[in-house]
Write the structure tokens for this entry.
Amino acid sequence: GNKNNKGKEIEKEKEKTDIKQPKDDDIPKNKFKIIFLGDSGVGAKTTLIRRIIGEEFNERVDATFSSNFARKNVDIGNNEELILELWDTIGSETFREVNKFFLKNIDCVVLGYAITSRKSFDAIKYWYQTTKDLNLCNLIYLVGNKIDLYDSREVSKEEAIQYAESLNLRYFELSCKTDEGINGFYNDLVNHIKELYIAKTK
Ligand code: GTP
């Protein structure tokens, strides 16, 4: 009955998404998929992606209801460039259900929280576990956003660093509002993606 129909619907959805999914050998060697995970409203997804692609900070951002991506081309000299696909996701418990179909061929995961929200930091455990359970990739960042709101800090830098080190995550604190720390994070990300690229093309 109902269950069967639902199963069929999911299969249909899956087929639709599979069509859009390139097969492994169709993916250009210089194209990398980076996915941003974390609770809604921390500004480490939509706003951070906009920062990376060079958009101005905007106080009003609509919450992300579905997943989509932005593209950024990075010149690495020698007439070569990296193509970064920056995937925004919905930050909710239904994440696994909604997103699992396109969680393929991921090169890097950025786990984001706001330093002003203990709740968003605690939620990183869930997002990290999701990353591991789905075996997404090995290059994982932990990013603490909103350092401009230092008066309302709820998570110390020491605690975050310790946590990141214990799980082998690359850690950065930044503010999408003031830009502080954005370059440091971005440069590190590009360098690591470049290493992946060099390893692939060797
Ligand atoms: P969803 O898209 O809702 O899943 O979450 P998100 O993490 O992408 O959050 P979003 O980018 O929508 O940002 C949430 C709010 O935080 C917006 O009002 C942003 O303007 C604000 N915001 C983002 N970054 C910063 C920051 O560094 N400092 C301050 N003060 N506000 C920020």
